[in-house]
Fold each of these.
Amino acid sequence: MRFLTFLLSRLVTYILVIWIGVTMVFLVPRFLPSSPVEAMMAKVAAQGQYMEAAQIESLRNSLMETFGLKGSLFQQYTGFFKRVLLTGDFGPSFSAFPTPVSQLVAQALPWSLGLLLTSSVLGWLLGNAIGLFAGYRKETLASKALEFLAMLIYPIPYYIFALVLIILFTYVWQIFPFSFYIDANKPLSVGLIKDIVYNSALPALSIIAVNLGWWVISMKALSASVAEEDFVHFARLKGVSEPRIMTHYVARNALLPQITMLAIRLGTIFNGALITEILFGFPGVGTLIYSSALQADYNLMLGTISFSVIAVATATLIVDLTYPLLDPRIRYR
Amino acid sequence: MKRTMCSVLMVLLICAGIAAGGGTPVGTLPALAPSAAWAQASQGGKMTEQGTPRSETLVMDQLNGRVANARLFNPYLPGVEINNGLKPLFPPLWEMDTMKGEMFPAVAAEPLKPLNAEFTRFQIKVRPGIYWSDGVEFTVADIAFTIQMLVRTEKLPTSAYWARILKPDTRMLDKYTLEIQTVNPYPRLQQVLGTTIASNSFRVVAKHIWEKQDPTKFENYPPVTISPYVLKSNDPNGQWFLYERRPDWQRTDTAMVAGEPKPKYILYRFWGPEEKRILAAIQNDLDILMDITPESWDILRDKNKNAQAWLKDFPYAAFDDPCVRGVVLNTSKVPYDKREVRWALALATDIQGVSMATFNGMLRVSPLPIPPTTVLQKTYMFPMESWLAAFALPDGYKPFDPSYAEAMAKKLTDSGIKGVPTDRAAIRQLFGVGWWKFDTAQAAKLLQGQGFKKDARGKWQLPDGKPWTITINAPNNFEVQSMRLAFAVADSWKKFGIDVTVKQLESAPFNSAFQTGDYEADVHWPGCGVMPDVYTNMDLNWHQRLAVPNGTPAAGNNSRFKSAQVSAVLDELGKLTDKDPKVVPLTTDFFKLMVAEAAWLPMFGTSKFVPVTTHYWTGFPTAENPYEGPWWWWTGMRYYLTKFKPTGNVK
């Protein structure tokens, strides 16, 4: 019964968070001093289209109609929720009209998830492993060197760091491809997977390296602190081996806040996707979010950011629900 | 143990990438060496990633980055991206010769022929022997169908626009001759149906394909075209588009007008940010670059001996871009509704300093509201020189400074720049006819005459005693020249004692603010034109009938400028055809009125740094071989391709 109440309260919070988040995403762009119609008009003008004033007015009205921006805000809002809840349809992208937002997101999402999820988890694993070692054996030279390296990388702005990697590994030493190139027209095969791994290696490395710094520093601090706890001393006095103390006593306790942080970070991985995508020419949702903001593409903004909101909320829910499984102290409460 | 694991994991990750890449050799390579991004050599030559011989492929920068929907080739849907090669796929009926400032028949066989004195009936004659890429002959039936489709398909966003211009009723005299009608008199219809600047809005579609489709949904993928190129393949994620020359390229307007387009393949490729585009060009992986900054150009020419800009020496850039940039003031807002205030701001602008701060002096000035292109300088600027010198403000002050060009040449030469011309005529041709004096005393006098005062700190106050603050809207990291111009002008005005801030905006809010009048000053480019007949653009931007209240999106005249005199001249111009001998004198009268009013502050033409690399291809247009301007993103690019030559380099 207590578990059911716990589960229900978490689910209600989950739904509320998504509803409030999506509503905000719906409203905020509409209060911005820009409109998709004007953005489209500017695009048309930039293409050198010859138009007289009356024709510009006609086109503006047509676009308002086409984009479904006529009607009150409330009508647009209810229409939007009905459409999204009943059909999962975020409508057409204005900037790539009439392409459905869902099609654009579906095309870009696997790339983003594949790269960002893998590299974030790898960065987390590596960072925590190094941090654990550095924290547990904090007096050794290797520990100090690792910490120094992490602190060196951590403050470097990602753009600069990634650019240095590109210059080093695609220009000076031409190990990796200069720009992302996959023949996505090919059927799934070993060759295609090989191409994907090869093309994704450098962007992945850049993400892992910049994430690594934080995980190393935070895990080092946590494990150093846990290593001083009485139960660790007690285990040592009882004759438990050092590797076992490090992995079973220190790591398990120090990892709990790191898991929470990983869940939060996984929910926000799209935030940093843009720079990776632009720099490495990687196809993903980052550029979609960016161009939707630039071109006041409300629907695309809604589609892409809603996924982000859902991702954060889901990640938090999963952590909430799995935490008792990971931490016996919470389970017994 | 743990230490080893960590190291091994890092190494493994890198090795996985290398292994997947097939173990491309590692080493420090000179700039000309092939990059690992490009596939292995085949038959001794370098291949592109797409599998085409590099020596037969022209690689172009994809102007607007990644294309969201790579299958969308319907030119009438608003989301279409036309800078991925789509422009040359839809050749216009009439094309533009930017060096002469004239339109000429392209797909059409002759200029558009008016059939009545009211300019409501016209005859289009097209070249016989043009074929669609699927083998069907191109005839005027395709044009008639396109007109009817546009006018009658109300759900197409541009339908209302076309319905105001064209009637759907057409008469086909034969396969190559068509009579069309307009709703209202339209002396300049050829400009609507052809390319004037960059692109055409009337794109003829294949009747035999489109008549079976719903044009509001049809993606037109792969496109059937009358261009000499067809889409061969593309990245579904929109990073690249590969076009191949048609085997029957002779059956296109390009072949008939200009000859054989030389590259067998054209690859439009998104490379990433400017740093990466420059790296690609340094490695000769990119033949044609779209806009870069002067700083990037310095790096490129330093690192790649094959890099080539429009001019061989300083200032390198092409100055004949068809738009002039400067500060647009919202003339419906106090105090910018006063001509004297606008003139004061012009005279408080240190134009030499602004030029240096914007593009290191690599700019050509314009005192008129049109771009200072070679054609327009010859038609208007230089002929108006004596009038400009004699022009006086009501108090008798003569604001024109004809020495700008010489002063800039001296300044640049003194600072160690090599290659600045020494001949007076060449200097003036390069830097422009002149601009307004930098005379803060006269600017102060004009302001004081309007009741402005300076406070104890030397800051200007409005006539009502409130501090005078100006916010200049500027693009945020796009349209770099305008963005930098905003800061340079702000600096000049600040030194004069005005409290100025620059507000940087992304493209959508930047354009929205301009159109709704939500600005005081905006660094924009409302004066565009290639031909001596600049009526359409001028009417759109300065006729008082288009001045709407702030808050309402304007259909033109974003500065809300009102002048009965100016509008009357525009009305007169509107009755003429572009070839009418009265066009130039009347347009000159219009410019005189605009100068007197200081309707806005045009400053510099657009400097285009759009260089090329000549490792694989030569024959690009340059100042020494100016068969056209370097307008790679215009529809006319398909004609330039006939002048390109392979160098024979295969590696």
Note: DSSP finds 14 helices and no strands in chain A.
Amino acid sequence: MAFVGQTTFFEACSLQEPANGLIPRFFEFRAGADADALLAGLRDFVPHVVLVFRPEVVPEGLFAELPAATLGFLSEPLPRGADAHADLQRRLNELQEVDVANFDRIISFDPKIADTAAEVLSVWRSLPLPVADRFFAPVTPMGHPPRILFVGRSTQHREYLLAPAKLEHDVLHVAFGVSGLELVELLHRHDVAINLHNENYPSFENRVSMHLAAGHLVLSEQLDPQHGLEPGIDYLQVDSASELRRALGVVTRFPRVHHRVRVRGRLKAEQFRASRVYPRLIADLLGDLDAFGSSRT
Amino acid sequence: MSGPLRVAFVGRASEVGHAVPASPVDGLQASFIEHRAGFMPSRVLAHIAEHAPQVVVVFGVASLPAATVRAIDVPVLAWDVAPDTPPGFGHHPELPFSSSAYTAGQASRDDYARVIDRPLPVADELFAPPRRAASVPRALVIGHSSERVERMLVDSKHRHELLHVASGLSGETLRATLATGEVAINVRDEEGRGFGLRVALYLAAGLLLISERLHPPAGLRAGTDHLEIRTSADLVALLGRVRADPDEFTAVREAGRRAAEAFRASRVYPQLLAPLVTR
């Protein structure tokens, strides 16, 4: 099974070790990259299935002759109504670049964007981005003070929410460029993780499940969809700069106060484990293609 | 003079800690007290009482209340560094800087024996040999983000290996992060002129420095000890050249490392501070 995407963002969502009959390999590819080199690499690997994160970055017709089942995974939020944030509208415009003929089936990370995506392509399934197995770790004792981490690009919305927390606490903010084992090690050196939306619109970021898998106490803006997670039980919801600052203050003074939330969050993260999700997903995909065929072939 | 100069430094480690040696070095015995807006200034006074410095250096003119500065009975200098928050958040309702009651009580330039406006020195332990670029060199950016910073970096982030840490790096984590890169990028938070908190740090760490024009240049020469850019496209192109030929800028990297000696903490502080001290 070939996974295709920008390593920085998507290697963490892929399968990295053989599991239940799947032998994975990750192929770095991003918008504007050498598509011929990607195709050559895929032909050498001879995959049965190719999964592409952000299918809109694949050039028109690239997979037309590829003898493999192809699956596109929509990973970006999209407008859910008429009054869309400009950032969402931009992402929809990018999605409109997709060549639907490249893919047998499309998955979206968010069922609530399926209607909007349907203007461009047909969504087969919705499920959250999985978490690579190597991110999973046991819940360990909280550091004194707790080590706090935010991994995500900087936006006005995020910096506004983070500013008081950053002033009062030592928040390590990695804005770009950490992936692979370095990301795994980074996560394992921290206890508390923050999740904030790009801008002021609802979504479910895969960093939530990744941090839960790493055994972190997760502080997040409201998640929509929840994908089975419950605020106050699996993670703590913070909806303003002051709530975030205060929540970090409580954890810093009383590091064990939310231990049960960390444990529950870590348990719930098992539903995102890559070696659990992908074998079942691919079995369903191949069964579905066998039963109903594809417009690609 | 006899014995090393005892100096207490006051500031935020993740912003200015790289300017303070963690252990005694030639002629300098430094201690550091973490302080930022909202922290109790009495901790600073307690630290000073415990360490008995001959001089105190405060990073950021308005970092301490004026009354605290006046309560210190040795010379107190301010090092003029930018406020510790991303640009554009000066009026954030949750930040103390937006409170007139807070700002009214903070120190001003007149409260100090001297205000220093020059590039930050670099702690001796952070100096490292110049590193040759790897086949896929990694560029580092350490510092606040802003709309302008993102505009300058975004194309390079998509085309090259670039690590951007926006906050929270200090101590051993900072040193380990510097060791993962071969190139450093210095871009200004906002339009205008400036030097940058970490320019000398990048050079001392043996990184190839790519920077917007430095003002004042502080003895550095573009094209000789660092590379200068004006636009995002310049940055993309230069990182491409470094990647294509890792040896092309070896001489610049080595000259940058030599130039960093002018910022070595054990050299700068005694020269700068000793004249203020009566032993």
Note: The radius of gyration of chain B is 19 Å.
